[in-house]
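Backbone-to-sequence.
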Protein backbone atom coordinates (compact mmCIF):
# COMPACT_ATOMS: atom_id res chain seq x y z
CA UNK A 1 0.00 0.00 0.00
CA UNK A 2 1.19 3.49 -0.91
CA UNK A 3 0.12 6.57 1.04
CA UNK A 4 -0.11 10.03 -0.54
CA UNK A 5 -0.10 12.86 1.99
CA UNK A 6 -0.14 15.98 -0.19
CA UNK A 7 -3.92 16.59 0.05
CA UNK A 8 -6.29 17.59 2.87
CA UNK A 9 -6.54 13.94 3.94
CA UNK A 10 -4.33 11.04 2.84
CA UNK A 11 -4.96 8.78 -0.14
CA UNK A 12 -4.24 5.10 0.50
CA UNK A 13 -3.46 3.25 -2.72
CA UNK A 14 -3.46 -0.50 -3.25
CA UNK A 15 -2.83 0.16 -6.97
CA UNK A 16 0.44 1.05 -8.67
CA UNK A 17 -0.86 1.46 -12.24
CA UNK A 18 -3.69 3.93 -11.66
CA UNK A 19 -4.37 6.18 -14.65
CA UNK A 20 -3.90 9.95 -14.40
CA UNK A 21 -7.62 10.75 -14.52
CA UNK A 22 -8.45 8.32 -11.72
CA UNK A 23 -5.57 9.71 -9.65
CA UNK A 24 -6.88 13.25 -10.06
CA UNK A 25 -10.32 12.05 -9.03
CA UNK A 26 -8.79 10.51 -5.90
CA UNK A 27 -7.13 13.84 -5.11
CA UNK A 28 -10.45 15.62 -5.56
CA UNK A 29 -12.07 13.26 -3.07
CA UNK A 30 -9.26 13.80 -0.58
CA UNK A 31 -9.83 17.55 -0.66
CA UNK A 32 -13.56 17.50 0.03
CA UNK A 33 -14.27 19.07 3.46
CA UNK A 34 -16.53 16.18 4.54
CA UNK A 35 -14.18 13.31 3.63
CA UNK A 36 -13.46 11.24 6.75
CA UNK A 37 -9.92 10.09 7.63
CA UNK A 38 -8.66 9.16 4.14
CA UNK A 39 -9.60 7.92 0.69
CA UNK A 40 -8.99 4.23 -0.14
CA UNK A 41 -8.24 3.26 -3.74
CA UNK A 42 -8.45 -0.45 -4.60
CA UNK A 43 -6.03 -2.27 -6.96
CA UNK A 44 -8.66 -2.48 -9.74
CA UNK A 45 -9.26 1.29 -9.80
CA UNK A 46 -9.94 3.24 -12.98
CA UNK A 47 -11.67 6.53 -13.80
CA UNK A 48 -15.42 6.89 -13.37
CA UNK A 49 -17.86 9.80 -13.06
CA UNK A 50 -16.39 12.03 -10.37
CA UNK A 51 -14.97 9.17 -8.28
CA UNK A 52 -12.79 6.28 -9.44
CA UNK A 53 -14.44 2.91 -9.88
CA UNK A 54 -12.62 0.87 -7.28
CA UNK A 55 -12.80 3.69 -4.72
CA UNK A 56 -13.95 3.79 -1.10
CA UNK A 57 -15.01 7.08 0.47
CA UNK A 58 -16.33 7.67 4.00
CA UNK A 59 -18.20 10.94 4.48
CA UNK A 60 -19.56 12.82 7.44
CA UNK A 61 -23.16 13.90 6.93
CA UNK A 62 -23.40 13.87 3.14
CA UNK A 63 -24.12 11.43 0.33
CA UNK A 64 -22.66 11.72 -3.19
CA UNK A 65 -24.78 9.92 -5.82
CA UNK A 66 -21.83 9.54 -8.20
CA UNK A 67 -19.76 8.00 -5.39
CA UNK A 68 -22.30 5.17 -5.39
CA UNK A 69 -22.44 4.90 -9.17
CA UNK A 70 -25.05 4.83 -11.90
CA UNK A 71 -25.78 1.09 -11.57
CA UNK A 72 -26.85 1.15 -7.95
CA UNK A 73 -26.58 -2.30 -6.39
CA UNK A 74 -24.48 -3.77 -9.18
CA UNK A 75 -22.92 -6.85 -7.69
CA UNK A 76 -22.17 -10.54 -7.79
CA UNK A 77 -23.85 -13.84 -7.02
CA UNK A 78 -22.08 -17.19 -6.92
CA UNK A 79 -23.34 -20.72 -6.27
CA UNK A 80 -21.28 -23.81 -5.57
CA UNK A 81 -22.99 -26.88 -6.99
CA UNK A 82 -22.54 -30.49 -5.92
CA UNK A 83 -21.17 -31.33 -9.40
CA UNK A 84 -17.55 -32.38 -9.70
CA UNK A 85 -17.43 -31.98 -13.49
CA UNK A 86 -19.54 -31.02 -16.47
CA UNK A 87 -19.04 -32.00 -20.11
CA UNK A 88 -18.86 -29.67 -23.10
CA UNK A 89 -22.14 -31.03 -24.41
CA UNK A 90 -23.79 -30.45 -21.04
CA UNK A 91 -22.42 -26.90 -20.93
CA UNK A 92 -23.84 -26.16 -24.37
CA UNK A 93 -27.23 -27.53 -23.35
CA UNK A 94 -27.20 -25.51 -20.13
CA UNK A 95 -26.35 -22.30 -21.99
CA UNK A 96 -29.16 -22.92 -24.48
CA UNK A 97 -31.71 -23.13 -21.67
CA UNK A 98 -30.29 -20.08 -19.89
CA UNK A 99 -30.39 -18.00 -23.07
CA UNK A 100 -34.07 -18.87 -23.45
CA UNK A 101 -34.92 -18.06 -19.81
CA UNK A 102 -32.68 -15.07 -18.98
CA UNK A 103 -32.98 -12.01 -21.26
CA UNK A 104 -29.69 -10.16 -21.94
CA UNK A 105 -28.81 -6.71 -23.22
CA UNK A 106 -31.89 -4.51 -23.63
CA UNK A 107 -34.29 -7.46 -23.68
CA UNK A 108 -36.92 -7.84 -20.94
CA UNK A 109 -39.36 -10.56 -19.95
CA UNK A 110 -42.63 -10.33 -21.91
CA UNK A 111 -44.56 -11.03 -18.70
CA UNK A 112 -44.15 -9.36 -15.28
CA UNK A 113 -42.04 -11.38 -12.84
CA UNK A 114 -43.17 -12.14 -9.27
CA UNK A 115 -41.43 -10.50 -6.30
CA UNK A 116 -43.04 -9.40 -3.04
CA UNK A 117 -40.70 -6.40 -2.95
CA UNK A 118 -42.80 -4.62 -5.56
CA UNK A 119 -45.53 -4.27 -2.92
CA UNK A 120 -43.25 -2.30 -0.62
CA UNK A 121 -41.80 0.13 -3.15
CA UNK A 122 -41.26 3.53 -1.50
CA UNK A 123 -43.50 6.42 -2.49
CA UNK A 124 -40.71 8.22 -4.33
CA UNK A 125 -41.40 9.57 -7.80
CA UNK A 126 -38.55 7.99 -9.73
CA UNK A 127 -39.19 4.57 -8.16
CA UNK A 128 -42.92 4.69 -8.83
CA UNK A 129 -42.30 5.74 -12.44
CA UNK A 130 -40.09 2.69 -13.06
CA UNK A 131 -42.22 0.06 -11.29
CA UNK A 132 -44.01 -1.17 -14.42
CA UNK A 133 -40.76 -1.65 -16.37
CA UNK A 134 -39.03 -3.16 -13.34
CA UNK A 135 -41.60 -5.96 -13.14
CA UNK A 136 -40.42 -7.03 -16.61
CA UNK A 137 -36.71 -6.39 -15.89
CA UNK A 138 -36.47 -8.57 -12.78
CA UNK A 139 -34.35 -11.60 -13.65
CA UNK A 140 -32.62 -9.99 -16.64
CA UNK A 141 -28.87 -9.67 -17.09
CA UNK A 142 -28.43 -6.36 -18.91
CA UNK A 143 -25.43 -5.50 -21.07
CA UNK A 144 -21.94 -4.07 -20.78
CA UNK A 145 -19.77 -5.99 -18.33
CA UNK A 146 -22.61 -8.09 -16.91
CA UNK A 147 -22.19 -11.84 -17.37
CA UNK A 148 -23.24 -15.36 -16.47
CA UNK A 149 -20.39 -17.83 -16.09
CA UNK A 150 -20.02 -21.52 -15.27
CA UNK A 151 -16.69 -22.29 -13.61
CA UNK A 152 -14.55 -25.09 -12.22
CA UNK A 153 -13.31 -24.44 -8.70
CA UNK A 154 -10.02 -25.57 -7.23
CA UNK A 155 -12.19 -27.03 -4.45
CA UNK A 156 -13.26 -29.69 -6.97
CA UNK A 157 -16.78 -28.35 -7.59
CA UNK A 158 -18.55 -26.65 -10.50
CA UNK A 159 -19.73 -23.09 -9.76
CA UNK A 160 -22.23 -20.64 -11.23
CA UNK A 161 -21.41 -16.91 -11.16
CA UNK A 162 -23.56 -13.90 -12.15
CA UNK A 163 -22.70 -10.20 -12.41
CA UNK A 164 -25.65 -7.79 -12.69
CA UNK A 165 -27.35 -4.89 -10.95
CA UNK A 166 -30.58 -2.95 -10.52
CA UNK A 167 -31.29 -2.35 -14.23
CA UNK A 168 -33.19 0.92 -14.97
CA UNK A 169 -34.11 1.46 -11.30
CA UNK A 170 -30.49 2.25 -10.44
CA UNK A 171 -29.69 4.30 -13.53
CA UNK A 172 -32.79 6.50 -13.27
CA UNK A 173 -32.37 6.99 -9.51
CA UNK A 174 -28.70 7.92 -9.90
CA UNK A 175 -29.44 10.34 -12.73
CA UNK A 176 -32.32 12.07 -10.96
CA UNK A 177 -30.55 12.57 -7.64
CA UNK A 178 -27.29 13.65 -9.23
CA UNK A 179 -29.33 16.35 -10.99
CA UNK A 180 -30.80 17.46 -7.65
CA UNK A 181 -27.38 17.28 -6.02
CA UNK A 182 -25.92 19.61 -8.67
CA UNK A 183 -28.67 22.13 -7.98
CA UNK A 184 -28.07 22.01 -4.21
CA UNK A 185 -24.27 21.98 -4.46
CA UNK A 186 -24.28 25.06 -6.71
CA UNK A 187 -25.70 26.97 -3.73
CA UNK A 188 -23.16 25.52 -1.27
CA UNK A 189 -20.51 27.23 0.80
CA UNK A 190 -17.55 25.97 -1.22
CA UNK A 191 -16.67 25.23 -4.83
CA UNK A 192 -16.47 21.57 -5.77
CA UNK A 193 -13.38 20.41 -7.69
CA UNK A 194 -15.72 18.54 -10.04
CA UNK A 195 -19.51 18.95 -10.46
CA UNK A 196 -19.71 15.15 -10.75
CA UNK A 197 -19.02 15.13 -7.00
CA UNK A 198 -22.21 17.07 -6.22
CA UNK A 199 -23.67 15.97 -2.90
CA UNK A 200 -26.79 16.00 -0.78
CA UNK A 201 -26.94 16.51 2.98
CA UNK A 202 -27.87 13.09 4.28
CA UNK A 203 -30.48 14.55 6.64
CA UNK A 204 -32.11 16.77 4.01
CA UNK A 205 -35.40 15.67 2.41
CA UNK A 206 -33.58 15.01 -0.88
CA UNK A 207 -30.78 13.13 0.87
CA UNK A 208 -33.20 10.95 2.81
CA UNK A 209 -35.19 10.23 -0.33
CA UNK A 210 -32.05 9.31 -2.25
CA UNK A 211 -30.92 6.89 0.46
CA UNK A 212 -34.40 5.35 0.62
CA UNK A 213 -34.49 4.95 -3.17
CA UNK A 214 -30.90 3.64 -3.20
CA UNK A 215 -31.67 1.01 -0.59
CA UNK A 216 -34.71 -0.11 -2.58
CA UNK A 217 -32.52 -0.38 -5.67
CA UNK A 218 -30.15 -2.57 -3.64
CA UNK A 219 -33.03 -4.80 -2.62
CA UNK A 220 -34.18 -5.06 -6.25
CA UNK A 221 -30.64 -5.80 -7.48
CA UNK A 222 -30.25 -8.63 -4.99
CA UNK A 223 -33.63 -10.06 -6.03
CA UNK A 224 -32.67 -9.67 -9.70
CA UNK A 225 -29.54 -11.76 -9.20
CA UNK A 226 -31.43 -14.27 -7.05
CA UNK A 227 -34.03 -14.87 -9.77
CA UNK A 228 -31.31 -15.36 -12.39
CA UNK A 229 -29.54 -17.79 -10.05
CA UNK A 230 -32.80 -19.71 -9.69
CA UNK A 231 -33.34 -19.88 -13.46
CA UNK A 232 -29.72 -20.82 -14.17
CA UNK A 233 -29.73 -23.51 -11.49
CA UNK A 234 -32.94 -24.90 -12.97
CA UNK A 235 -31.02 -25.27 -16.25
CA UNK A 236 -28.05 -26.91 -14.54
CA UNK A 237 -30.32 -29.31 -12.66
CA UNK A 238 -32.34 -30.16 -15.76
CA UNK A 239 -29.19 -31.09 -17.71
CA UNK A 240 -26.98 -32.62 -15.02
CA UNK A 241 -29.09 -33.27 -11.94
CA UNK A 242 -26.74 -31.03 -9.95
CA UNK A 243 -28.01 -28.71 -7.23
CA UNK A 244 -26.62 -25.72 -5.36
CA UNK A 245 -25.00 -26.22 -1.96
CA UNK A 246 -23.67 -22.74 -1.08
CA UNK A 247 -24.51 -19.21 -2.29
CA UNK A 248 -23.13 -15.66 -1.97
CA UNK A 249 -24.99 -12.53 -3.18
CA UNK A 250 -23.27 -9.16 -2.66
CA UNK A 251 -23.27 -5.55 -3.90
CA UNK A 252 -20.32 -3.45 -5.01
CA UNK A 253 -22.04 -0.10 -5.84
CA UNK A 254 -23.69 1.34 -2.74
CA UNK A 255 -23.40 3.50 0.36
CA UNK A 256 -23.94 2.26 3.91
CA UNK A 257 -23.93 3.84 7.35
CA UNK A 258 -21.15 2.18 9.33
CA UNK A 259 -19.00 2.81 12.38
CA UNK A 260 -15.27 3.31 11.78
CA UNK A 261 -12.78 4.63 14.32
CA UNK A 262 -15.66 5.31 16.71
CA UNK A 263 -17.64 7.52 14.28
CA UNK A 264 -20.84 6.86 12.33
CA UNK A 265 -20.04 7.65 8.71
CA UNK A 266 -21.51 6.94 5.30
CA UNK A 267 -19.17 4.59 3.44
CA UNK A 268 -19.48 4.84 -0.34
CA UNK A 269 -18.19 1.77 -2.18
CA UNK A 270 -18.10 2.41 -5.91
CA UNK A 271 -16.83 -0.73 -7.57
CA UNK A 272 -15.62 -2.00 -4.20
CA UNK A 273 -16.69 -4.97 -2.07
CA UNK A 274 -17.32 -5.05 1.66
CA UNK A 275 -14.64 -7.19 3.32
CA UNK A 276 -15.49 -7.38 7.01
CA UNK A 277 -13.60 -10.01 8.97
CA UNK A 278 -14.90 -13.40 7.86
CA UNK A 279 -17.30 -11.95 5.28
CA UNK A 280 -17.68 -13.92 2.04
CA UNK A 281 -16.81 -11.98 -1.12
CA UNK A 282 -16.62 -12.47 -4.87
CA UNK A 283 -13.89 -10.95 -7.03
CA UNK A 284 -14.26 -11.86 -10.72
CA UNK A 285 -11.57 -11.66 -13.36
CA UNK A 286 -12.15 -11.07 -17.06
CA UNK A 287 -14.08 -13.66 -19.08
CA UNK A 288 -10.80 -15.41 -19.89
CA UNK A 289 -9.28 -15.30 -16.40
CA UNK A 290 -9.80 -16.81 -12.97
CA UNK A 291 -12.31 -15.47 -10.45
CA UNK A 292 -12.15 -15.74 -6.67
CA UNK A 293 -14.35 -16.47 -3.68
CA UNK A 294 -12.79 -14.58 -0.79
CA UNK A 295 -13.05 -14.00 2.93
CA UNK A 296 -12.61 -10.48 4.29
CA UNK A 297 -9.86 -9.67 6.76
CA UNK A 298 -11.64 -6.62 8.22
CA UNK A 299 -8.88 -4.11 7.47
CA UNK A 300 -9.74 -0.63 8.72
CA UNK A 301 -7.11 0.78 6.36
CA UNK A 302 -9.61 0.20 3.52
CA UNK A 303 -12.74 0.79 5.64
CA UNK A 304 -13.14 -3.01 5.53
CA UNK A 305 -13.27 -3.15 1.72
CA UNK A 306 -11.60 -4.90 -1.21
CA UNK A 307 -11.61 -4.69 -4.99
CA UNK A 308 -14.72 -5.75 -6.92
CA UNK A 309 -12.93 -7.33 -9.88
CA UNK A 310 -9.92 -7.04 -12.15
CA UNK A 311 -10.70 -3.46 -13.25
CA UNK A 312 -10.51 -2.04 -16.73
CA UNK A 313 -7.23 -1.02 -18.31
CA UNK A 314 -9.00 0.13 -21.50
CA UNK A 315 -12.30 1.87 -22.07
CA UNK A 316 -14.87 0.03 -24.18
CA UNK A 317 -14.28 2.08 -27.33
CA UNK A 318 -10.51 1.84 -26.94
CA UNK A 319 -10.70 -1.92 -26.50
CA UNK A 320 -12.84 -2.32 -29.62
CA UNK A 321 -10.42 -0.15 -31.56
CA UNK A 322 -7.12 -1.58 -30.36
CA UNK A 323 -7.55 -5.24 -29.45
CA UNK A 324 -7.00 -8.04 -31.95
CA UNK A 325 -9.97 -10.40 -32.22
CA UNK A 326 -7.98 -13.54 -33.01
CA UNK A 327 -5.52 -12.90 -30.19
CA UNK A 328 -8.34 -12.37 -27.69
CA UNK A 329 -10.12 -15.50 -28.90
CA UNK A 330 -6.91 -17.44 -28.32
CA UNK A 331 -6.97 -16.29 -24.68
CA UNK A 332 -10.43 -17.88 -24.46
CA UNK A 333 -9.30 -21.24 -25.81
CA UNK A 334 -11.12 -24.07 -24.06
CA UNK A 335 -13.93 -21.75 -22.87
CA UNK A 336 -17.38 -21.63 -24.47
CA UNK A 337 -17.88 -17.93 -25.16
CA UNK A 338 -19.56 -15.36 -27.40
CA UNK A 339 -16.47 -13.44 -28.46
CA UNK A 340 -17.24 -13.69 -32.18
CA UNK A 341 -16.71 -10.26 -33.73
CA UNK A 342 -14.81 -7.03 -33.21
CA UNK A 343 -17.95 -5.56 -31.62
CA UNK A 344 -17.49 -8.00 -28.71
CA UNK A 345 -13.98 -6.78 -27.87
CA UNK A 346 -15.25 -4.20 -25.35
CA UNK A 347 -15.32 -6.98 -22.74
CA UNK A 348 -12.44 -9.11 -24.06
CA UNK A 349 -9.73 -10.29 -21.62
CA UNK A 350 -7.26 -7.72 -22.94
CA UNK A 351 -9.52 -4.86 -21.84
CA UNK A 352 -8.91 -5.77 -18.18
CA UNK A 353 -6.06 -5.72 -15.71
CA UNK A 354 -4.35 -8.93 -14.63
CA UNK A 355 -6.55 -10.40 -11.89
CA UNK A 356 -3.58 -12.27 -10.40
CA UNK A 357 -1.77 -8.95 -9.87
CA UNK A 358 -4.92 -7.39 -8.43
CA UNK A 359 -5.28 -10.24 -5.94
CA UNK A 360 -1.60 -10.09 -4.98
CA UNK A 361 -1.96 -6.40 -4.09
CA UNK A 362 -4.78 -6.93 -1.61
CA UNK A 363 -3.58 -9.87 0.45
CA UNK A 364 -3.99 -7.68 3.53
CA UNK A 365 -7.67 -7.09 2.66
CA UNK A 366 -8.94 -10.57 1.73
CA UNK A 367 -8.02 -14.23 1.98
CA UNK A 368 -8.58 -16.42 -1.09
CA UNK A 369 -11.01 -19.26 -0.36
CA UNK A 370 -11.63 -20.72 -3.84
CA UNK A 371 -10.05 -20.09 -7.25
CA UNK A 372 -12.45 -20.48 -10.17
CA UNK A 373 -11.56 -21.25 -13.79
CA UNK A 374 -14.10 -20.24 -16.49
CA UNK A 375 -15.75 -23.03 -18.51
CA UNK A 376 -18.54 -21.16 -20.30
CA UNK A 377 -19.60 -17.50 -20.49
CA UNK A 378 -22.73 -15.58 -21.51
CA UNK A 379 -21.83 -11.93 -22.07
CA UNK A 380 -24.41 -9.21 -21.42
Amino acid sequence: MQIITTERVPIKLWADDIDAQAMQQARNLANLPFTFRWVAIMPDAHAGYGMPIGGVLATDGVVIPNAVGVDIGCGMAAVRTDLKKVTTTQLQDILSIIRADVPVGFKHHPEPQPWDGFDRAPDIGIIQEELYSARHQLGTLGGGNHFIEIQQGDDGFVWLMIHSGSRNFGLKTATEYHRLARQRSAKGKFTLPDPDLSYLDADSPEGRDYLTAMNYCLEFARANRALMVHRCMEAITAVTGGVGTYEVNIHHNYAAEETHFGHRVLVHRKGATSARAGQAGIIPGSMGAHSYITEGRGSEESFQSSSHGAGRRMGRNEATRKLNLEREQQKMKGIIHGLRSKHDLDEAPGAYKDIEDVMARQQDLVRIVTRLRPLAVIKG
